[in-house]
Here is the input.
Amino acid sequence: MLQKIKELAKKYAPEFIEVRHHLHAHPELSYQEFKTSAFIQEKLTSLNIPYKVMATTGVVGLIKGKHPDKKVIALRADMDALPITEANEVSYKSVNPGIMHACGHDVHTTCLLGVAKILQETKEDWEGTVKLIFQPGEEKNPGGASLLIKEGVLENPSPQKIIALHVHPGMEVGHFSFRGGMVMASADEIFITIKAKGGHAAAPQFTADPVLIASHLIISLQQIVSRNNNPFNPSVLSITAINGGNTTNVIPSEVKLMGTFRAMNEDWRFKAHELIKNQAHQLVTSMGAEVNVTIDVGYPFVWNDEDLTKSVKAYAETFIGKELVHETELRMGAEDFAYYTHKIPGCFFRLGAGNASKGITSNVHTPTFDIDETAIEHGMSMMSWLAIQL
Here is the structure.
């Protein structure tokens, strides 16, 4: 079976590289993936794979092997793009202005479509059912995963396990990485508005300067992590935007701050939310201004089931060799795959997509992101193998 999967992946790789080109050239933003969804539906129909549409643009297919009730495994791929203008000059460059598949979701969708073809062709060789989840809206709250779960994607039939891959441009193509336990952080968005008495910049004594107050607040908020959190508990608080005022001689009456808070412990996460709010209220009011703090609660942390990940990593080593399988580094980035991992055992692993010798090294979320496209063959073959083994 191992050799058969490798041969099929190699055989179909050129077809799915073209699929990736199409998806990459026609990116769509979160929750607007209508043409992408229609394309996926067309491909599943051509493979005689039944599916249903969920969460408006999500597509969920089923492939039944022998004894389909014996076990159900879910495979997930996200399909939304980012509001980035592509800088690559390639034949498959985005034709949608200001929108780009800069996080590799076109690759993830392509790989899962390739897996669908391989599993459909080999369904007499394995037992159980594979649920294919093509998910919208990974890049934007509340996260397409949460919407699909609310609509019952983990029911009828209910998968016992779920796996997903993500491109890693910092890892050479042909390599994979896995990590059990904590993998990625939760992500919450912070919005702070400071309102005060503005006035003439030459007479600050008659004002309560919100720019000065904001500067004190930005510095003081850093103490929440550095002096309240256990140093061995990864956490990040970053204020990323400050907006207020528009000229040199006027102290404004309002300043707005934005930022993000990341954590890998749910108790600390929500304790920190309260500390942020309290710190902001106490400092700002003590300086004569008013403040409003809104924390938009985002994705929880990604937790890879340790037993599942151990098994999956062993299967991967059997498939391609131990020298090509690595330990994924801990990351403070976020992923809405987390929602699945808080419901059923999951494993989120990395697909090497970079090639330093070809100059393919740009990171995700950049205008020059791209992949070594041999990663398509590696991704579809590995996920097919893992699904069958599970």
The first strand starts at residue 51 and ends at 54.
